Amino acid sequence: MDNGLVKFLKRIEPSKDKKMLHTLFDGFFTFAFTPNETTKNGVHLRDGMDLKRTMVHVVIALQLCYLFGTYNIGHQHFYALGEFTGLFDGFHLKLTHGLIKMLPIFIVAHVVGLGIEFFYAAKKGHPIEEGYLVTGALIPLIMPPDLPLWILSLSIIFAVVLGKEAFGGTGMNIWNIALLARVFVFFAYPTTISGDDVWISGIAKEGITYSTEYTMVHGWLDNLFSSFGWSVFGEGGVVIDGFSGATPLSLAVSGGWEAVTSQFTVSQMWWGLIPGSIGETCKPFIIFGALFLIITGIASWRVMLSMALGCALTGMLLNGWGATEYMEIPWYYHFYMGSFLFAMAFMATDPVTAASTNTGKWIYGFMAGMVGLIIRVINPAYPEGWMLAILFMNTLAPTIDFYVLDANMKRRARRAQVAA
Fold it and tell me: What does pTM read for this prediction?
């Protein structure tokens, strides 16, 4: 049956002269069917794992982050109201509210990004490049749940056009594209991605009634839920007194570990029941995704381990310095707060922008962990440093590899001279 379907699709394959149609057809065909072989030289192993399937493995590793992130959008929304505060209370409302917020971000991220990819592929006359599969999956997870879609679109256009296509396309970019999208939002529209009121969806400032935040979709769902006798969204409510929407990092800047634990338990930070970017809060699911990438050979364990070591050692040094309350936070709790584990697992390990040599990966990862924590702790204006640290190390990665290779060649040359 598969052979018959392949033959049928080959018969209706558009001519290469029709660039737009042929590009679209090729993108669908290569996504749907595995190649017969990807290497023909006898020196290489023959393997059906092409670039698309490599990217799909990363997308699979992100699915638990998507699932929890969608739920947590709704959980934080109702927690701000003092409603359904238990983990499973109002589960259907939390999940559906999260979907209402998540789906537009996910759709826009893919439509805009893949639209640009398709345009450039058609203009250049080559197949659709696969790199955006991962970028499109990462971008929604590193953004706030209420980010305006037009800002999201601008950030993707900036990142894909200037960060990738200007350098030649997939595999030629210097910086991680998803992080470029986030850095664009941070510097161009800082109030939409920083501060305490951007991480909770559907919450009006000043704690005023926010019933207008509910959409017609919420109303339709209320009709459905009421027919089953379930809880409904209703007319909205008022943010409870004392609720700030602050993340653990923003609390740490102002009051150290005591301020953090006054609002969040260690368990909440570990399991991700805290405000933050959509997919970066649940640590067990991130670790599961990281292990999946390591076991399948997609991501480098050297980068992950060295980045953790760099963060830990720097945290110990800052604990010893102890000049501020933030510096005194026990180094191991930096793994609980913010997006370190997500950055380590899915951002720093990007094979295109990270160091390529084994020794270079150790240096690259260690420096990313060290620089990121220094930015997080010492720079009060930006209490999360992994975005800037990884982009900085992306810039240095080719230089690191150059000196590692140069040292290897000189060492081999000396051995050859001694042997002669």
Answer: 0.88
